[in-house]
Automatic annotation (TrEMBL):
Domain EGF-like: 418-455, 830-868
Pfam families: Laminin_G_2
Membrane topology (UniProt): Single-pass type I membrane protein
Domain Fibrinogen C-terminal: 454-507
Organism: Latimeria chalumnae (Coelacanth)
One annotated Gene Ontology cellular component of this protein: membrane
PANTHER family reported in the protein's UniProt record: CONTACTIN-ASSOCIATED PROTEIN-LIKE 4, PIKACHURIN-LIKE PROTEIN
Family: Belongs to the neurexin family.
Domain of life the protein comes from: Eukaryota
UniProt-listed InterPro entries: ConA-like_dom_sf, EGF, FA58C, Fibrinogen-like_C, Fibrinogen_a/b/g_C_dom, Laminin_G, Neurexin-related_CASP
Domain F5/8 type C: 1-46
Metal-binding is among the record's keywords: no
Protein name as it appears in the record: Contactin associated protein family member 4
């Protein structure tokens, strides 16, 4: 804190937390640059009683019980301690039945081990071990409180409390003879101890209200003193120093001497790298450097930037513990020892004599290393040192502080100000905390969370949220409470329904379970364990709009509910842990099965089919729909013990649909309107997320105030959102400017997060903005007023528009319920299609709903929730799908059908055709459409793999024919075809190739369409082209997918509406998933051709009409080339035939047995994949 700057002013500073202390020490960090050194202080406190005892590491206090053993169900132990040692026993007691309690200091942390005994001796199943605190060997007072009631234990160290329960069966702590403080004495061996004793001071030691130190001071018989225990606490004469910044260093003088050098000191740090010592050796023979790198100790001897000797030893020396370093150099040999461990000693032989220098620089160098007397290859040390010895002389650091010895910069002397920034651990959800001198870091790897403190879940909260990001059915991780304590779980999201999304959760017994030999005295119970915990299931069910679970009971002479006669023979238990006496298809409290509710049981005297007690198999099956009781966790059966009595039960997975939170929305109609909720509690971490849409240029989304602290999110301008707060360090704001306008009446997403390390703001898909928190500032957000949503407490700058899915720390606020009782605010918000309509693809139409939207795929060749699922079918040999339009003359009289009147009663000047196909057969008729005026369009795949498109729009004129050659169109792979005609211009695109443009020389109108045919043409048409007749010999054998002609979807209609639509299917056709790999549409450059001439490259598309040349000079050359080509073709065709023969054999099997088309199709495509791996492409 900042002190006064003159002799008259008074500075008040209030501590964040109350403290208990006998002494206050003030450490000046900087002097007043405009005045003299001086300080005036006034402290307000209270009286304090202190009983102190000091232990020298070989002593202990033994509190002996009046009886042989002490058995307690409640214990309270409290004490304070301070020490410079990082290990030692503070408290120990044990019994003969395996009970014990031990409080031990280990590496500066307190470990409490406790056991209430076990019926099996020498096991660890009943042991509990809890660790608290850090850096407790700092010679400061630390408080301990242990409270136990039966198995429940509260363990508190310096106001940090950990609550836990002991394991095992017993509630009593049985301690024999005595409780020891300061060590564990060896029975029968006076002065002997099992572990290292405590070395330091105790204060106010209480055991169940007994003042142990007071009893010892008064020499009471309950206390036995072992070793030297004094009732005062001396201050050790150890002076530490702290290197606090990059400009810190300590220079100590030395003396040139030729008999070598010896240096030792202790240090502690969190940083992986830092200079420990730099010294210029005698007569400039070189530099001695000792430093940390990656947590290891490294020593180098170098001269003129040339490294002569390197020694490396130790590991993990940046763990915050005190480590001792001893360096001894004599002549041309040097050795380093860490922590007085001879096993860690590293030796090296040098190329120069080791002579002591005149100056020793510890921690850093003056001028950031720009000094000829000091060299620093790494960073400045940020940490502490003590017990510095140079050539066997201890350095008096108080003389350094007084300016009588050496020199220093930016040091704290007589203080080690190291902090454990991982205590308390602000890393959430199991994040691993690590630290440096100034900051801590959280490792969130494989946790499912991200952010500076692992606060934010990387998964969506429901299947509904995944659906509206455009995902399809599959397994997904969902995190039901977002940043809350529940972790992510894996579920199956079924998004195949048109406007419903189901979350499916499996359990361990979905198969039929047979039951025999059960009765009321010995019932059969089946317990169900789900892939999610009960807490996860609660969250999923509570968030869902609807849940259901199918329950089936198959019975033969086995009664079920047995109402209304007697008590039920069977029941089930749900998540409320209550017996449920109704069955699937019925309602709570009715005590009936589905047939009893519908009054159609096989015996009208009973309410379940099984209660008729028939000798034949029957069943009671239905869905449990009351979601407050779901899921089922147990089923009990008790009537299968009679002769010939059997039963079988089957419980389906839990299905839940909808997300009540995702569409929970409100509309704010005036700037003065708002919703208020209870105070938001996000002291150390807070995340707020919501969707909004508005046409206003500014407004406050939410605000919550404290006495001085506050938190606020607002729209500051049409393109800017601001997140501001104050936790005691002054107002802080994170703002983000969008590239687009945010007041466009579209849904926009906002997420703001604030934790002890940083604050961040995220808007839509914009890059996240982050602002770091002060390293040593206030961190707790303290609010006390109501939370205002859509406005402020002053009723100014209110928000006009809609908000939905408002979540605070993973908890969704029910905006709609609060809006029902609030004037100026209405529940719900229309207009979802304006934001989400683009999710409806392939011609799907967005339909508004109260909670969300759905996609209408009626006029799309695709299906699924977003009209993205390909509708595909396999057609066998001779199969035909005919979509017939109404007769032209009938239509002229009665034109009640819109689709038919559009096609048969009007003249078409344009067509939009799209389909995908997969086949190995040529020639194949892919698509055919004709009219009552003998006009037609045919799409044919020829034997030479060319695509043949024939338009005949006027029988008086010549046919317009287009041939497009691509390689391997009949290779069993999926190919996409697009044909678009607008009057005389024709556009064709195959797969990803360029979109080609042609000009029709025939008529440009398609009159009175009669039928659209997929596969074989069964009717007789006299005007069919020879190429069409050849292809029609077998029609089409293979896969057709997503066939669309303008707004007509003939394949989809034939599969899903065969009885209600004018469609006829003959031959073998079966729905398949053979179109799932449809090549994505691509756009490319256009090439213009005319069907009346022969221009254009042959590989892109070449008209065949009038294509014969009569140039005799060319013919001779052509004949020579043809002879050569024929020879090549013969050789290559043999190879291709060998590869295709196997493929055709597989296809022959498909033709022979159309009943197994799906299986054959899988085999065909599997084989095609094998062929594709080996085939080579040949182009003639």
């Amino acid at each position: 804190f900042f002190g006064n700057t003159n002799a008259d002013s008074v500075v008040h500073y209030k501590l964040q937390h109350s403290i208990k202390a006998r002494f206050l020490r003030f450490v000046p960090l900087d002097w007043n640059p405009n005045g003299r050194i001086g300080m005036r202080i006034e402290v307000y406190g209270c009286t304090y009683r202190s009983d102190v005892a000091e232990f020298d590491g070989t002593s202990a206090l033994l509190y002996r019980f009046d009886q042989k053993s002490m058995s307690t169900v409640k214990d309270t132990i409290s004490l304070k301690f301070k020490t410079l040692q990082s290990v030692g026993i503070l408290l120990h007691g044990e019994g003969q039945e395996g009970d014990y309690i031990t409080l031990e200091l280990m590496k500066g942390k307190l470990s409490l081990l406790i056991s209430l005994g076990d019926d099996k001796l020498h096991t660890t199943s009943s042991h509990a071990n809890v660790t608290l605190g850090s850096l407790l060997d700092d010679q400061h007072w630390h408080s301990i409180l242990i409270e136990r009631v039966n198995k429940q234990i509260n363990f508190t160290v310096d106001k940090h409390t950990h609550q836990f329960q002991t394991k095992g069966e017993f509630d009593y702590l049985d301690i024999d003879y005595e409780l020891s403080f300061g060590g564990i004495p060896v029975p029968g061996k006076p002065g002997g101890f099992l572990k290292k004793n405590f070395h330091g001071c105790f204060e106010n030691v209480y055991y169940n209200r007994m003042n142990i130190i007071d009893l010892a001071k008064r020499h009471k018989p309950q206390i036995h003193i072992v070793g030297n225990v004094t009732f005062a606490c001396s201050e050790p004469k150890i002076v530490p120093i702290t290197f606090v910044s990059t400009s810190s260093y300590l220079m100590l003088p030395g003396r040139y001497q030729k008999n070598g050098l010896s240096i030792s000191f202790q240090f502690r740090t969190w940083n992986k790298a830092g200079l420990l010592l730099s010294s210029k050796l005698y007569q400039e023979s070189g530099f001695l450097l000792l430093y940390l790198t990656d947590g290891r100790l490294k020593m180098t001897l170098q001269k003129s930037e040339r490294i002569l000797t390197v020694i490396s030893t130790g590991t993990g020396l940046n763990n915050g513990q005190w480590h001792t370093v001893s360096l001894i150099g004599k002549r041309n040999r040097v050795s380093i020892t860490i922590d007085d461990d001879a096993g860690s000693t590293a030796h090296a032989t040098t190329q120069m004599q080791m002579y002591s220098g005149s100056n020793y620089y510890f921690g850093g160098c003056p001028g950031n290393g720009n000094d000829s007397r000091c060299m620093n290859p790494v960073d400045t040390l940020q940490g502490c040192m003590r017990l510095i010895n140079i050539n066997n002389h201890a350095v008096n650091l108080i003389l350094v502080q007084q300016g009588l010895l050496g020199n220093f910069s930016d040091l704290q002397i007589d203080l080690c100000s190291i902090r454990d920034r991982c205590l308390p651990n602000y890393c959430e959800h199991g994040g691993e905390c690590s630290q440096s001198w100034n900051a801590f870091y959280c490792n969130c790897t494989n946790l499912g969370y991200t952010g500076a403190t692992c606060h934010t879940s990387i998964y969506e909260q429901s299947c509904e949220a995944y659906k509206h990001k455009g995902n399809t059915s599959g397994f997904y991780y969902i995190d039901s409470d977002g940043s809350g304590p529940l972790g992510p779980i894996l579920v199956y999201c079924n998004m195949t329904a048109q406007d419903k999304t189901w979350t499916v959760i499996q359990h361990n017994s979905t198969e039929l379970t047979k039951v025999k030999g059960s009765n009321r005295e010995n019932p059969h119970s089946v317990f169900y364990k789900y892939t999610a915990s009960l807490d996860h299931l609660d969250a999923i069910v509570n968030h869902a709009e609807h849940c259901e679970q199918e329950l089936a009971y198959h019975c033969k002479k086995s009664r079920l509910l047995n109402f209304p006669d007697e008590l039920p023979f069977s029941w089930w238990v749900g998540r409320t842990s209550e017996k449920q006496m109704y069955w699937g298809g019925s309602l709570p409290g009715v005590k009936k099965c589905a047939c009893g509710l519908e009054e159609n049981c096989i015996d009208s005297r009973h309410y379940c089919n099984c209660d008729a007690d028939k000798k034949e198999w029957t069943n009671d099956t239905g869905f449990l729909l009351y979601k407050e009781h779901l899921p089922v966790t147990q089923i009990v059966i008790s009537d299968t013990s009679r002769p010939n009595s059997e039963a079988a039960i089957k419980l389906g997975p839990l299905h839940c649909r909808g997300d009540r939170n995702f569409w929970n929305a409100v509309s704010f109609n005036t700037e003065a309107s708002y919703l208020h909720f209870p105070t938001f509690h996000g002291e150390f971490s807070a995340d707020i997320s919501f969707f909004f849409k508005t046409m206003a240029s500014s407004g406050v989304f939410l605000e919550n105030l404290g006495i001085k602290d506050f938190i606020r999110i607002e729209l500051q301008s049409p393109k800017e959102v601001a997140f501001s707060f104050d936790v005691g360090n002054g107002p802080c704001e994170v703002s983000l400017k969008s590239h687009t306008y945010l007041n466009d009446n579209q849904w926009h997403y906002v997420k703001a997060e604030r934790n002890v390390k940083e604050a961040s703001l995220h808007v839509d898909q914009q890059p996240q903005r982050t602002k770091a928190a002060p390293s040593d500032g206030h961190i707790r957000l303290q609010l006390n007023s109501q939370l205002f949503v859509g406005g402020t407490a002053s009723r100014q700058k209110g928000f006009l528009g809609c908000m939905r899915a408002l979540q605070l720390n993973g908890i969704t606020l029910d905006l709609e319920e609060r809006a029902k009782i609030t004037p100026g605010v209405e529940p719900g918000c229309p207009g979802h299609c304006s934001s989400y309509g683009n999710l409806c693809q392939n011609g799907g139409k967005c339909i508004e709903k109260h909670n969300g939207f759905s996609c209408d795929c009626t006029f799309s060749a695709y299906s699924g929730p977003f009209c993205k699922k390909e509708v595909s079918a396999y057609l066998g040999t001779g199969a035909s799908v005919v979509y017939a339009f109404q007769e032209y003359y009938t239509l002229a009289i009665n034109s009640s059908t819109p689709a038919a009147s559009f096609y048969a009663g009007m003249t078409l000047s344009r067509e939009d055709i799209h389909f995908s196909f997969r086949t190995i057969h040529t020639p194949s008729l892919l698509f055919y459409i004709n009219s009552y005026y003998e006009e037609y369009l045919a799409v044919i795949l020829c034997k030479n793999d060319s695509m043949y498109i024939q338009y005949h729009l006027d029988k008086q004129l010549e046919k317009g024919t287009l041939q497009i050659r691509y390689k391997n169109l009949a290779n069993g792979q999926l190919h996409s075809m697009k044909i678009n005609r607008q009057e005389g211009e024709l556009y064709v695109q195959v797969d990803h190739f360029s979109r080609l443009k042609y000009s029709l020389s025939s008529d440009t109108e398609f009159n009175a369409i009669k039928s659209l045919i997929l596969g074989r043409i069964l009717a007789e048409y006299s005007d069919l082209d020879q190429e069409v007749l050849k292809a029609n010999s077998q029609g089409f054998v293979g896969c057709l997918s997503s066939v669309q002609f303008n707004n007509i979807t003939p394949l989809k209609t034939a599969l899903y509406h065969p009885s209600s639509a004018p469609v006829t299917v003959q031959g073998h056709m079966v729905e398949s998933n053979c179109g799932i790999s449809t090549v994505a549409d691509s756009t490319g450059s256009e090439t213009t051709h005319s069907l009346a001439d022969n221009s254009g490259p042959i590989d892109e598309g070449e008209p065949l009409a009038n294509a014969i040349r009569s140039d005799s000079a060319v013919i001779g050359g052509v004949i020579a080339v043809v002879i050569f080509v024929i020879l090549c073709i013969i050789a290559i065709t043999v190879r291709i035939y060998q590869q295709k023969s196997t493929y055709k054999e597989s296809e022959a099997k498909v033709t022979e047995n159309d009943a197994s088309t799906d299986a054959a199709l899988k085999n065909e495509f599997s084989l095609q994949n094998t062929i594709t791996e080996n085939q080579k492409e040949h182009y003639f």
